[in-house]
Amino acid sequence: MIIDRTKVPDNVNIDIGSRLQVRTRDGRPMPVTVVEVDDASVKLDGNHPLAGKDLVFDVELVEIVQAA
Fold first, then answer.
1. Phi-psi region of 27 (alpha: psi -120 to 50; beta: other; left: phi over 0)
2. How far apart are the first and last CA of the chain?
3. Cβ atoms of 42 and 36 closer than 8 Å
4. CA atoms of 45 and 29, how far apart (whole Å)
5. If DSSP codes are grouped into helix, strand and coil, which group holds residue 34?
6. How far is CA 38 from the centre of its chain?
7. SS3 category, 45
């Protein structure tokens, strides 16, 4: 989402990579990350920080149960 830079309060850090919280239209909080900044606008990414990354899990199989 791209917002007008004037809508960001002066005391809010809008460096690239900064994590912010915005409110959705229905008032729910939503975490976002600043991905681009220019003189007129701020581009925010609402995807989860792990979106698009490879995840590796260590799994321990404890038991196998056969269905009756």
1. left
2. 52
3. yes
4. 14
5. strand
6. 20
7. strand
| Separation CA 8–CA 14 (nearest Å) | 8
pLDDT level of residue 49 (50, 70, 90 thresholds) = confident
Average pLDDT, the chain: 93
DSSP state of 27: S
In this structure, the chain runs to a length of 68
Q: What is the pLDDT of residue 68?
A: 77
Mean pLDDT over 22-51 rounds to 94
Residue with tokens 């990414």, as numbered in its chain: 45
- Residue 43 C-beta-side C-alpha neighbours within 13 Å: 5
